[in-house]
Amino acid sequence: MSKNKHTNPAYISHVHLKGYKSIIDTEVELHPGLNIIIGPNGSGKTNFCEFTHRLFNFKYPLIPNKFNSKVKINYNDKEFVWAIAVKHLDRESSQFAKTIEEYFFEKGAQDSKSIEYQFLDLTELTGRRNKAKTFLIKHFQPSIFIWFSSPSTQSRYNETTSLEGHINIKINKKSLELEGVILFPLHFVSNFIFRNFLDLQNKDILESADILIRKLEIDKDAIRNLRKFSPIKDIRIGKGLTVSENSLTYDIDYIRFEFLVDGFWISWNQLSDGTKRMFYIITQISAYDRGLTIIEEPEIGVHPNQHRKLLTFLKEQAEEKQIIITTHAPRTLDILKNDELNRIILTRYDKDKGTKMRHLSEEEIKQAIEYKEEEGSASELWTYTGFFDEEEVI
Amino acid sequence: MRIGIISENYEHDSKALKALLQKHTFKKEVIFIPICKTIEGDNLLTTKSARKINIDCKKYNINLVVLVKDLDGLPSDKKKIEGISSKIQKIAKNTNHMIIPFIVIFEQEALILADIQAFNTVYQTNHTFSGNPKFQSEPKELLKKYTSNSKRKYKESDTPEIFQKLDFDKVYKSHKDENSFQSFIKALKKAL
Question: Please, which of A2, A74, B127, B174 could form a disulfide with B114 given CB 3.0 to 4.6 Å?
């Protein structure tokens, strides 16, 4: 990464968070590209990831006088601030709104007395395809996916499903928006499969169902990345898909995906858990040109050789996007070159101060480089020499 | 003859070079095998690599080893070239196998510039490169720039696919003189 000029025009350069689970008052500098958080269980890595993600998606729960956040975003070497602080939350507000999103939706940002804020139009900074500001890929592949309505309305359906079954989708003829349900992960349909379709401006193109079927294209970048970095070598839409239309909508029924692994086409439920997770990570990241992706422990359920490939993928993608990963695998840190060791962030939990985060000191980096020179890898240094012991961290 | 390839990145660099070398007909029958998967980046030129080379050479029945290292600099950076050469020699002393070094001026992407048509085929672009690839600083950034407006963007992991399409003779003729693809091929042929 060091020898590449990062082309990401916007990245989070500094985070200062207060008031979320183990985070009492924590701040940390972040680099463009790849940042790796490592620390003991219970040190607050997950809380940091959740907090940062919720912040940009307005999902933070409203807890009066506690929540305070300030994030600096670097764009073309200029600094912008994204800040939200809950001040004096009145009883009425706390009754109707459970999250910042709900509060703003009801009250409107302009009338806010309880919440101080300073927002940016992140879409302008991060590009059109970056409708969601951050992505959080949690520890495991979700077994149940939540069905969402059209991305613009944000309201939810109670139905759940998984990729194991087939998918039915309706597309509004006039607005060209997906109507009814979209499968989670949201990107999978809205950007991964239907990207080309939704980009169509000329509504006349959609004259017939046949044309619509031809537009059902699986994203080529995602396929290429899966082929290079995972056991999945191709994806196709299985037979049985039907398209019909009425006066208002196109109805696409029985969309079922098949995956080429070891020369055989298999269904989603035949993929191993590790392969599902790699699919999830690779397609999620491939779907966006820019933005922040936070991934918790990408090594979970993944064979060491596949883990190495996955890290190669993440490092390559981090040339254009900011990626934060948490890890318990010292092997992950070996992906960093000597001049990238400042991308390691150590976390620890202090019973009085909560979660604390810091980078390696210059002396520690020097020590790690010397160790690498001698041993060919610093994995043993991270694992066995007390490098991350709590007493020595802060 | 079985030739092992070791580089800073097994997935990109080793596989890409294998794709290019396979296009050439050597006097002897040769098989190129990327080895030492776990070696990455700065770990390549450490003395521990010698041990890993020995293990993999035994495992894959390797007769000689090609060690590829990006210079991350131009030919004028003699001090850097000497530094890398001396580290490679140190590794060679600790292995049971002959090592043919290939110090790539700047980085492997410089080889692509010798046959930009192959690149254009992959990315459906129409670029020309008339300069001397040996003196192109940061060729990877240049290739990224070439595809900045294309549907498919250049990625380092695409190099095996591009190298498969490169014209071996064009690369051989463009990268000549000291520390070049040409001098590396000559040394390899001599060692066969």
Answer: B174
Q: Do B42 and A377 touch (CB under 8 A)?
A: no
As a whole number of angstroms, the distance between CA A179 and CA A169 comes to: 7
What's the CATH number where A391 sits?
Answer: 3.40.50.300
Shortest CA distance to A308 belongs to which of A287, A279, A329, A324?
A: A329
Instruction: Report the CATH fold assignment for B2-109+162-191.
Output: Rossmann fold (3.40.50)
ipTM for the complex?
A: 0.87
Q: Does the CB of B11 have a partner CB in chain A at under 8 Å?
A: yes
Q: In A, what residues contact B, Cβ < 8 A?
A: 3-5, 7, 220-221, 228-229, 305, 308-309, 312-313, 316, 334-338, 372-377
**Strand ranges, E, within chain A:** 10-18, 26-29, 34-38, 68-75, 78-86, 115-118, 134-137, 145-148, 156-161, 167-172, 178-179, 232-237, 242-245, 249-255, 257-261, 264-267, 292-296, 322-327, 344-350, 354-359
**Subunit contact B46:A228, Cβ cutoff 8 A:** no
Q: Domain limits at A194?
A: 140-271
Instruction: Name the residue in chain A with its Cα closest to that of B87.
Output: A373
Q: Tens-digit pLDDT profile for chain A (394 aa)?
A: 444 444 446 889 999 999 888 999 999 999 999 999 999 899 999 999 988 888 877 777 766 556 788 889 888 788 888 888 877 667 777 666 777 767 776 776 655 666 777 766 555 555 444 444 677 788 765 544 433 333 333 333 333 344 545 566 666 666 655 544 333 344 444 444 454 454 444 444 455 556 666 666 667 888 899 999 999 999 887 777 777 777 777 676 776 778 999 999 998 778 888 898 898 888 878 877 777 889 999 999 899 989 999 999 999 999 888 999 999 998 899 899 999 999 999 999 999 999 999 999 999 999 899 888 888 788 777 777 666 665 544 4
Closest-approach residue (CA) in chain B for A338: B42
* Domain count for chain A: 2
